[in-house]
Design a protein that fits this description.
Length: about 80
C-alpha cells in the first residue's frame, strides 16, 4: 500500500496545476472573480516553480511559458473587473 501511495503522490505533483486551473475556470464561469483569481495565481505558482528542475523538451517548455503568459493576462483582466 505504501508503494501505491507514493506513486499517486508523485503523479499528483506533476499535474497539480491542472486542478487549480479547472477550479479557476469553474469559479470564473460562476462569476466568483476573487476565487478565480486565487486559483489562477495558484496555477501560475505551480507552473513557474514546480517545473524549473525537471527535464522538459523545448516544445513542452515553450507551451508552459505560453500558458504562463496567457494566465497572467487573464489575471490582469479579472483584477480589472473587481
Amino acid at each position: 500500500m505504501v508503494l501505491l501511495s507514493e506513486k499517486n503522490s508523485a503523479n499528483k505533483n506533476i499535474h497539480e496545476f491542472t486542478e487549480h486551473l479547472e477550479l479557476a475556470k469553474k469559479a470564473e464561469y460562476k462569476e466568483q472573480v476573487p476565487e478565480a483569481i486565487n486559483h489562477y495565481m495558484d496555477t501560475l505558482y505551480h507552473l513557474e516553480n514546480d517545473y524549473q528542475n525537471r527535464a522538459m523538451s523545448k516544445s513542452d517548455n515553450e507551451r508552459r511559458l505560453k500558458l504562463i503568459e496567457s494566465l497572467k493576462q487573464k489575471v490582469d483582466i479579472l483584477k480589472a473587473r473587481v
